Amino acid sequence: MIRDMTSEERYIRKRLRRARKEAKSFYDCRKYPINRHKIVFMNIEGTVGYGCNPKYICEEMRRRNAMRRENNEKPYDLVWLVDDISLPFPDDVRVVRNTLKNRAYELSTAAVWVDNSRKQLEVRKRSEQA
Question: What is the pTM of this model?
Answer without folding.
Answer: 0.85
